Amino acid sequence: MTTTPVRQEYEVQLEPLLSVPVERQLPLAQRLWQQGWLRKAVILLMIAVLWEAVARYQDNDLLLPSFLQTAAALWDGLITGELPAKVGVSLVILLKGYVLGIVLAFGLTSLAVSTQLGRDLLGTLTSMFNPLPAIALLPLALLWFGLGDNSLIFVLVHSVLWALALNTYAGFLGVSETLRMAGRNYGLKGLRLVLHILVPAALPSILSGLKIGWAFAWRTLIAAELVFGASSGKGGLGWYIFQNRNELYTDKVFAGLAVVILIGLLVEGLVFNTLERLTVRRWGMQR
């Protein structure tokens, strides 16, 4: 019987590769252009320049004030404290309706993934109320709740609830059966299964629903405040826009609209992008 000889192990020391030149660093302009915030700032600057050019060409401040006039009106509203006060009123009402809509949507979708009755209830209610514009319910809300914040909160809940519920439920349905069985093997069921298994796995869809619900709620609030402010003599940012439109202060109207846009950009960039970066992107669930 012959045995195979054992080859002696050895290690080769590799010399550093010094003959290949090191790649030069990218030019400063190219490195700066890779920054997303800078590209977006350039787009906004181009829009401002185009706006200023069109306004100067038209030469009618009543129809279209220039960008510089709007910026001056915005600065004046911030310095006097009028715009921050109006924004504060709007955001307080918005947060109340938004949070209440999130709670109701979570309860409805939790019931839907747990029982057949919940699925039928969610399907029926979303088919009925999701196509219904939230602002169309404002006259009914004023009749039920009177002139107060509750009327606005009612329409905000309607604007948030159905979009978030549909996205959350779709995310729950997309959770793999393997994850569900793993949760059941650990004894999870009911609300614990939803919190520990379904919510983390469906988080991309939930975040999409939160963003859609935020957008619906924000624009519904501004539209509702136009009517609510005209009815009660007070209101937030929407009432500020409506009041200045009646007094033909078009630059202030544009300043109010600019604040609406800026708040939307800040919430999208600081809140939702941060949530996505810390959760679904960090976990590799989203690019």
TrEMBL record:
Give an example GO cellular component term for this record: plasma membrane
Which Pfam families did the record assign?
A: BPD_transp_1 (PF00528)
Q: Does the keyword Transmembrane apply?
A: yes
Q: Which GO terms describe its biological process?
A: transmembrane transport
What's its membrane topology? Multi-pass membrane protein
The residues forming the signal peptide are: none
Domain spans labelled ABC transmembrane type-1? 83-272
Would you tell me the protein name for this molecule?
ABC transporter permease
Which organism is the protein's source?
A: Pseudomonas putida (Arthrobacter siderocapsulatus)
Upper classification of the source organism reads: Bacteria, Pseudomonadati, Pseudomonadota, Gammaproteobacteria, Pseudomonadales
